[in-house]
Automatic annotation (TrEMBL):
Pfam families: Lact_bio_phlase, LBP_C, LBP_M. Residues 444-663 form the Lacto-N-biose phosphorylase central domain. InterPro entries: Class_I_gatase-like, Glyco_hydro_b, Ig-like_fold, Lact_bio_phlase-like_N, Lacto-N-biose_phosphorylase, LBP_C, LBP_M. Residues 9-440 form the Lacto-N-biose phosphorylase-like N-terminal TIM barrel domain. GO terms for molecular function: 1,4-alpha-oligoglucan phosphorylase activity. Residues 668-719 form the Lacto-N-biose phosphorylase C-terminal domain. This is 1,3-beta-galactosyl-N-acetylhexosamine phosphorylase. It comes from Lentibacillus kapialis.
Length: 726
């Protein structure tokens, strides 16, 4: 890494008790100008007097057990579904708490289960009349009468959540022993609603040294349920399950004009994850919760501003209803958003947020004992995190960076302290050069799925920052784009149906497994959608399908845009029809300088519709990469795209080919796939970056048609002046 000039500012450091001297040292070395506490730490008075902005963590709906215990009826609630139970006779006893952690949840018997619970015959999908089942509350059992033998049954039940999931996770991870369990209470309930405002006003008076109130976060935690062993059972970073209550259901019916079923929330046990094509009822519920949360958050933010303090929102924990790309976010009046940065995608998720004064990223690794232990080298994770995040910084920088956890842990690793010192200086240099400067983009791409802009930079996330076998082949797309010289937008199927494809879009990408919200599932049966995209591509647009794009079996097609892509997938229905087109090209623009690439899990049994399809990669009896003309436009098919430097280059070349802009590909360009060029015409500069941990040589195309050779040391970047073409 290049030795940077020592700078200060734009860095937030976590604190820890009895660590004052070392904190001063870290502040000086890392140039930190802000200090923050964390869950489980308290800032000492001496630290508050240091020359730094003070962030104080504030929990709105937990951490006030004295109040919560006085109003147990206002604990947060959620709908849960039992495991499937098979009837072997006409009477079936269901242990509906089986597999759940009873330290976290308890059944809600305060509200009439006959009205608010639901028993379903999962073999037929029929609701069992409430007169045909009864509860044994003493033993938490439900008895189904007149059951049909060998049918499966589930119980959807309301429960109270009596332990906040994040505090529970931290409690277990850090072995907090007998520390009290934080009880979450519901701001929709009358006592709680008044309490959160009154307590905040009193708290602000008691914390005059606080400059930034770091809300962590507001009312409703993303869905995180633990099993009977205290392990994560179900986690959905977008889950609205913990926002449900009888009060919410009644208010929803009054506002929307119809009543939700428990099934609208439990969703056959899928709980409406972001991978499910959302129903109208669930979209209405999201809108309903967001509107309520925005209104109530605005009241709290106003109280903070009246005390001349800033309001910062942590993008995580209790963030449900505050989605920053949603309709109502701007109404909250937040000053800042801070979130965890695990890679380039999560950085852009934060840095692109509109309607705030500044954004901040909490970099990894977290200062917890699961990383900082004897024998481990935390610099490895820190370097990987920085190199992936830095690509995205070059496109849209955060305003600040920081870390979390207990600083005494990394303090025992001098090489890590040295490395972060270099990172913070490097961040400040990048920021000072390009803040508020629009980078050059050679192409504009729209990611098309069911969520559109609401989930900007959030496709294929299960649990924030974690990779899964069935997602990494698609998540790599947004990771590649997060730091690429491309404008990226996110559009929904409804957007296309109502407004068409935006005029400035060059390429559309639709990617995902069949039936998911990201591929589209049943939405592709809408003739308006397929017709709009076919017309757009025919007149010159580019369409890239990855995995199982536009996939639903309908009218003899599986890929509903098979005619655009030039390929379809064999389901076993057309095995009697010969498929002769399997010959691959010797050369194609898309793979011109990419010798190795990876399609991940990759969809199988994809075949060409005709000899107009150019097959670029074919293996194991399936097309992995191909392209086909459609009118004046092009369709490109890929089996999958995990993130790598090679795959990033492959995707960029595919986009330029699909858009018919091959001649513009080398305008600002590095020939070495481990390097990238970012140009900023407004300030007359460009930067050449080595995104690897090894020395690299590359040809650099400088935007004027000239090419020169450069050598970059590991992780190095070099600024250059843009030559006057005149």
């Amino acid at each position: 890494m290049t030795v940077m000039k020592k700078t200060t500012g734009r860095v937030t450091l976590p604190i820890e008790e009895n660590f004052l001297k070392e904190t001063k040292e870290l502040m000086e070395r890392w140039g930190a100008d802000a200090l923050r506490d964390s869950d489980g730490t308290t800032m000492e008075e001496e630290m508050k007097r240091l020359n730094a902005k003070i962030y104080t963590t504030y929990f709105v709906a937990r951490g006030r057990n004295a109040f919560a215990e006085q109003h147990p009826e206002e604990m947060q609630q959620l709908y849960l579904m039992s495991t499937y139970h098979t009837a072997v006779d006409t009477e079936l006893e269901v242990d509906f708490l089986q597999g759940y952690f009873t330290e976290q949840i308890e059944p809600d018997y305060r509200h009439d289960p006959k009205k608010w619970w639901e028993v379903i015959d999962r073999t037929t999908g029929k609701i069992i009349e409430s007169s045909n089942w009864e509860l044994n509350q003493d033993h938490d059992r439900l008895l189904v009468h007149d059951a049909t033998p060998w049918h499966e049954y589930t119980v959807s039940f309301l429960a109270y959540m009596k332990w906040d999931p994040t505090q529970m996770y931290n409690h277990i991870t850090n072995d907090w022993g007998d520390k009290p369990h934080d009880i979450p209470f519901d701001a929709r309930q009358p006592h709680s609603n008044q309490f959160v405002k009154d307590y905040l006003q009193d708290w602000l008076k008691e914390n005059p040294d606080t400059d930034v109130v770091r809300f962590t976060t507001f009312f409703y935690h993303f869905t995180l349920i633990f099993n009977n062993l205290g392990q994560e059972k179900f986690v959905d970073w977008f889950g609205y399950g913990a926002s449900v209550s009888v009060a919410a259901l009644k208010a929803f019916e009054q506002e929307k004009g119809y009543r939700l079923r428990p099934e609208d929330i439990v969703d056959q046990g899928y709980y409406n994850t972001a991978f499910r094509v959302p129903s109208k009822a669930y979209l209405d519920y999201i809108d309903f919760i967001q509107k309520f949360v925005a209104r109530e958050v605005k009241k709290l933010v106003d109280i903070v501003h009246e005390s001349d303090k800033e309001a910062m929102m942590f993008l995580g924990d209790n963030w449900i209803g505050t989605e920053p790309y949603g309709t109502y976010f701007k109404e909250m009046g937040m000053d800042a958003v801070v979130g965890s940065v695990g890679d380039g995608t999560t950085l852009r998720l934060i840095s692109d947020i509109p309607n705030v004064t500044y954004t901040e990223g909490r970099f990894l690794p977290y200062f917890f004992p699961d990383t900082f232990y004897e024998g481990n080298d935390p610099v490895i994770e820190a370097n990987e995190n920085w190199l992936t995040a830095r690509r995205a910084l070059m496109r849209k920088p955060l305003d600040r960076i920081g870390y979390g956890g207990y600083p005494s842990l990394p303090y025992k690793f001098p090489q890590f302290i040295d490395y972060v010192e270099k990172v913070t200086d490097e961040f400040r240099e990048i920021y000072s050069e390009i803040k508020d400067t629009k980078p050059y983009s050679g192409i504009k791409v729209a990611i098309l799925n069911a969520w559109g802009k609401l989930r900007t930079w959030q496709t294929h996330i299960v649990a924030h920052g974690k990779s899964y076998k069935q997602t990494y082949s698609y998540y790599g797309i947004v990771e590649a784009l997060s730091g690429a010289a491309a404008d990226v937008t996110f559009i929904s199927f409804d957007d296309v149906i109502e407004y068409g494809v935006p005029n400035d879009v060059d390429v559309i990408i639709n990617a995902g497994d069949a039936g998911t919200a990201f591929s589209g599932g049943i939405r592709w049966k809408d003739e308006r959608l397929v017709s709009a995209i076919r017309e757009w591509v025919y007149h010159g647009g580019g369409f890239i399908g990855i995995g199982e794009p536009s996939a639903i079996h309908h009218q003899g097609r599986y890929f509903q845009l098979a005619n655009v892509l030039g390929v379809d997938k064999e389901l076993g229905y057309s095995l009697s029809t010969n498929k002769y087109v399997t010959e691959t090209l010797d050369h194609h623009f898309i793979t011109e300088d990419v010798t190795t690439y990876d399609f991940g899990e990759g969809s199988k049994y994809v075949y060409a519709l005709s000899d107009e399809t150019d097959i670029i990669e074919y293996s194991d009896g399936s097309i992995r990469l191909s392209t086909a003309p459609f009118g004046k436009g092009n369709g490109v098919y890929m089996a999958g795209l995990p993130y790598s430097h090679e795959n990033t280059r492959l995707l960029m070349r595919a986009m330029f080919h699909a858009a018919g802009k091959e001649e513009a590909f080398n305008k600002w360009h590095a020939s070495n796939i481990h390097c990238e060029v970012h140009a900023y015409p407004e300030i007359g500069k460009y930067v050449v970056m080595n995104n690897s941990s090894s020395r690299q040589e590359t040809d650099v195309y400088d935007g004027s048609g000239s090419v020169h050779r450069m050598t970059l040391e590991p992780s190095e970047f070099i600024w250059e002046e843009i030559r006057d073409e005149g």
